[in-house]
Amino acid sequence: MATGAALMVVLSWAAGLAAAASVDTSPVPFQAGYMPLFGGDNLVRSPGGRSVRLKLDRRTGSGFVSKSAYHHGYFSASIKLPDDHTAGVVVAFYLSNADVFPRNHDEVDFELLGNRRGHEWRVQTNVYGNGSTSRGREERYLLPFDPTLRPHAYAVAWTPTAVVFYVDGTPIREVVRVPAMGGDFPSKPMSVYATIWDGSAWATEGGRYKVDYAHAPFAADFSQLVLGGCPAAAGGGARCAVAVMTAEFAVMTPAKRAAMRRFRRRHLLYTVCHDRYRYNGTVFPECDDADGSERDDFHRWGESKRVSPGRRGYKQQQQEEEEPRADKAAAGRPSTWPTIGTLRAD
């Protein structure tokens, strides 16, 4: 009885805190929440200060960073990507604290990867904690739309217990914190960054296709900038933490999980959770496929058998009953695929 009463007190306290505080997810003007990071006049603000254009040319890329660091929250930007030949171009929207913790930084990434003319952009997500860059947790996706025609929203919900990635309001990936992750889950305050830069060494088919500056400048437009977090300078107190964890963006309802499964079935190209080569058969503890139902949809190197990259067209979905492609290499992963460190891509 006493234990039950104590639990009721805790729940009542948490509910009171949540009611007293809410997370503001309305967009902020650039000047209110961000400042230029690098690039000089390759960063161009709109007259009203509500949007920013980041450009990459032969001289430099460009980027901006939040004025505050945050300890959990919801962070979003609507991004319109450059068209035409964009091989080697990387447009990133991410959280990081590498400036404060260079040896053991945390990071949560959206990296949008350009491609050859007529071929689709890719989206890559990643999560690092405590400098765990040697244990990359990459996933890579196609998009169900052409991201060069108009802005689309890319968002990260980061709480003490999970990281959820959203595209246009649909969750595409959830990384749930489990005890076995240890320090690999991001836990220190992070700033929010947006950049465009030359990723010729790896971004498009493992570096096979480089940035061609004959097509420069490459321009990415950022708008609808949301900084709905707990500012670290304010202490990131219990009231804000409870508000973040109980906010709509942090609660994964059955409907959200169903939408996430549909997206992943149709658009997930690669996941580290089914890559049996990269870490010699080791499976990360947060990977959830208890019944093994997903495994048959992936090759041993983590690439989907169901989803395949193609030319521009941005199919709404792959054929659900498509016959799985033959294993590309019965004896192992194709040796002709280019590499990103130990990760083979595309």
TrEMBL record:
Compositional bias segments (type: Basic and acidic residues): 292-306
Post-translational note: Contains at least one intrachain disulfide bond essential for its enzymatic activity.
Catalytic residues (positions): E107, E111
Keywords: Apoplast, Cell wall, Cell wall biogenesis/degradation, Disulfide bond, Glycosidase, Hydrolase, Secreted, Signal, Transferase
Disordered: region residues: 292-346
Signal sequence, start to end: 1-20
Hydrolase as UniProt keyword: yes
Record-level Gene Ontology MF annotations: hydrolase activity, hydrolyzing O-glycosyl compounds; xyloglucan:xyloglucosyl transferase activity
Domain of life according to the entry: Eukaryota
Function: Catalyzes xyloglucan endohydrolysis (XEH) and/or endotransglycosylation (XET). Cleaves and religates xyloglucan polymers, an essential constituent of the primary cell wall, and thereby participates in cell wall construction of growing tissues.
Protein name: Xyloglucan endotransglucosylase/hydrolase
Organism: Panicum hallii var. hallii
